[in-house]
């Protein structure tokens, strides 16, 4: 069968903030760029980011990028790569101004400057008083940024393939990436998109967990494509649980709620964060606050008839502040909990939120993989940015407000580097039909009919296993059981069949391929977690309660074949300033 | 609860039909939850959805005759039997999935981006809180299409009338003190159809899941156009 082919200079897979910032850079440089997205671009999950984007503008309190860098390194529990972190924090202010010029409707201060709010893990003067570094558009900052970036791409005439699902990367025998095989969801027809350079910007994989803040589409498609292309995933054991998901439901209540002055209470009405983080209290790092909430509940101080959550108190802020700064989450709590936060506290519990790990890259967004004795060799033609990537600016724990920054900074950096790459690589390389056949086999596998496991059931089981055996608290026994159970789910997936084999807008088939992706990522996560025998950032082991810099100040690299793990050093050397050496992490 | 859903698969069905399901619901069940339950019973049932909390705009559908988002509509509060259909006025691809190509073309046509003639400073453009307040009720649009899909003027002229969603965005930039494209925006909307097909039927504001008011925005554009003519 002959598959139609389209050719572009650059292919961007994913139309969230990272993909759209990169495609804008490419389009403005007159590169022909195709953006492939399985949903219409403004449906991408960047849209759900609430609280804001960090940049040391010093509009509210004194600030500078170097303090931001320190906070980010400390927040990462020293697993972040300090060159990438310096690059990001230095670029932050410029890129916020650029977004503002793109039309992002940031909230404003009386002097007309961009409004900034305090967020967790922020300090002035390297660990001193609380900073106010998070630039916000009320509690809809992600929506505002995503829409503005999409609008800029309309202006720049970027070519969009809306509702096309990426099946797999195409590569030649040397491993050079040649583009991707995609599926037009509306017609069910495959299409080869050939490109001189390809960017993965497919977002995170929060759907591996049962209760999560993520959208249905957050299935880690790019990460799984990288794994299938023989590339590793880095630091997958570090999964962020956001302290304040709506209890039992999972919808996100922004950290901005605490930034605006909200705080957490246990069943005794105690402001318990004072015990866990005497200085930063409710604005400690997310890993610290999530563990504190989980500990309160485990030790019997949870609220409600089942004692299974804590309360986020906001009523003291007053209706005016809530309507001005937190209007969306007020509506959300009303809709999903029948709670009006102007009058009552909101029940919250830690909820799976953000994939710190991902496809390893350098600070230009180039995907890197170990080869021989070298730990980071660039994969020719392939880039990755945003939540699907691991550059790594978040290390073992991401700071709130740093993910919108990450996608914009590295989306732009990758776009720039791809433009350079195109100058050196003027022509498409020959298409490798073996690679196309392999990708087609992935699609055709779902033509099988008969009896077998169903996709929704397998997905539910996977999410339950990950929640029970790879959650906030881990130990060897729990994780070993998790590995066993995930391997079992992997085996069951081989027997799964679809009941719907139609072509037109077949969402059942898309969901099956998404589940394949999720299961690979869940396996990567639980294997990486089992192997890391220390507690660092979001990875908390009850059997190894301390951080162990002697043995574990290193990145994990998980490979799909044989579930192999390798390790590589953290890039401790910043670009221009002195390194921040690991210290005890106290908030 | 009895739910009747619109079914049409162009590969197998000569005609669309309604199919009825009985679903157990609680006071918390959203329409989207019920649709997911139906999909589990019949995996061929097809609809768009993603964030589940009313911010991505994927799951605009017609619920008991009125457009809305499935993920933030409580099913227990609806009149039984609940009838779920695709949004009207847009071509149907399959079941509840409609073709929104035209809708997005109209959005692109209003130049939904800041137009600047002057150079930008090295820091932010200043905007007072009062100037910024003028964007509230405009920028929050999630492009779900509920408004345009409920507008009779858009149903009859989807190719010529920009529709409430696009016009709301046109006003979002006209109302932004940082934008310098007023003239070309108004020029673009000139003529009997693009803007003036709005007959203030106001379905758009009734159905908007974000509580926005496109009719009012359209009124502002008309006023500005008249002001610029005299």
Structural account:
By secondary structure, chain A is α/β, with parallel strands linked by helices. Chain A is built from 16 helices and 20 strands. Chain A has helices at 17-28, 65-75, 82-101, 141-155, 221-228, 256-259, 273-276, 286-298, 319-325, 327-337, 402-424, 433-444, 455-469, 476-494, 507-531, 549-552, and strands at 5-13, 33-37, 53-54, 116-117, 134-135, 159-162, 164-171, 177-184, 189-200, 233-234, 239-246, 263-265, 310-313, 346-355, 359-360, 366-371, 374-384, 389-390, 554-559, 564-569. In chain A, strands 1, 2, 6, 7, 8, 9, 16 and 17 form an eight-stranded mixed sheet that branches. In chain A, a hairpin with a 4-residue loop joins strand 8 (177-184) and strand 9. In chain A, helix 1 (17-28) packs parallel to helix 11 (402-424) and helix 3 packs across helix 11 (402-424). The longest helix of chain A is centred in the last third of the chain and has 25 residues, at 507-531. The radius of gyration of chain A is 23 Å and the shape is globular. Chain B is an alpha+beta fold. Chain B has two domains: 2-98, Roll (Ubiquitin-like (UB roll)), CATH 3.10.20.30; 101-229, Fumarate Reductase Iron-sulfur Protein, Chain B, domain 2, CATH 1.10.1060. Chain B contains eight helices and seven strands, in the order ββαβββββααααααα. In chain B, the strands form two sheets. Chain B has a five-stranded mixed sheet with strand order 2-1-5-3-4, with helices on one face. In chain B, strands 6-7 form a two-stranded antiparallel sheet. The radius of gyration of chain B is 20 Å and the shape is elongated. Chain B starts with a strand and ends with a helix. The mean pLDDT of chain B is 97. Chains A and B meet through helix 3, helix 4 and helix 10 of A and helix 3 of B.
